[in-house]
Amino acid sequence: MKLPPLKIGKHTVKYPIIQGGMGVGISWDRLAGSVSKEGGLGVISAVGTGYYENKKYIEKEVAGRPLETANFYSKKALFKIFENARKICGDAPLGANVLYAINDYGRVVRDACEAGADIIITGAGLPTNMPEFTKDFPDVALVPIVSSAKALKIICKRWTQRYDRLPDAVIVEGPLSGGHQGFTYEQCFMEEFQLENIVPQVIEEAKKWGDIPIIAAGGIWDHNDIVKYLKMGAAGVQMGTRFIGTYECDANDNFKKVLLEAKKEDIILLKSPVGYPARGVRTNLIELVEKREGPPIKCISNCVAPCHRGVEAKQVGYCIADRLSDAYEGNLETGLYFSGANGYRLDKLISVKELMHKLVYGEDD
User: Fold this and answer.
1) Cut 0.85: pTM above it
2) What is d(CA 56, CA 150) in angstroms, rounded to the nearest whole number?
3) Residues 113-139 pLDDT 10s
4) I need a surface site. Which of 35, 55, 106, 325 has the fewest CB within 10 A?
């Protein structure tokens, strides 16, 4: 099947493939720029930008960590990441992923618009006030991530009433994705919450509001998966973990090694200070946390609102900002390595160009 282009607001992506935003340094300039250059939508994660280029753009750090929200979500670093991504992809559409659960959400969305994002994607909560922060940027497309038709209905209702606008596209994410889930631990394993069962429901709800493109995400791996969801009525797909297996991915070599060596049973659901279950690889950190022997929790960066300044971190046994940044820096002892359920299928590194070719044409998969 020939893959059609994906139109999101005023922007047209050559192929209906969005590279998922992966925070603290997994999808920054090199990966996102390369994906956009090859005809997909590259997405820069706004999470943990303070760590970019060895914390070169932050004002203050404590114990090697960006101090407070303003430094953890560094505006200067985000601008530099976009500048460097643009050197790779030129004028091709480029996205930013800004989690709704973060502190300073509105400020970071505005930063991303100013930095040159064409499309803003937001998950980890219901972004009912997302348009509030993009009023001065009418060309920036807004794409919330939902996990149910009900969530889409709430967003469309609020946006229509308050801002007289609708999402430019919607990503529906099933429970096989990497990182945080929009489901309870139990729901992640229930048939009715699997992606193929929620996509048709979200498509039906979207039709009630007009012509909103629906993008399927969570566990999508190859050309056949893409075709499956396009035939179901989706306008495109979002894929994260598969792009970690590329040379251009901004992740540390050790991060890639963890995934390349992971077996199916190593990829598990974890408790997270964000309040949602999160999917990652069982590593040394997880063993320590289970024994309540994890690294000390100090809440230096104050990253997410649901953590309540380290209260939730202490309950689950780790600080998410510190542990994700350790993974970005390749620390195998204390790093938290997020992966989608199919991460064990990565067996070698290839270029983004080669991966996009496989996804678009379905060869040698």
Assistant:
1) yes
2) 43
3) 999 999 999 998 899 999 999 999 999
4) 106
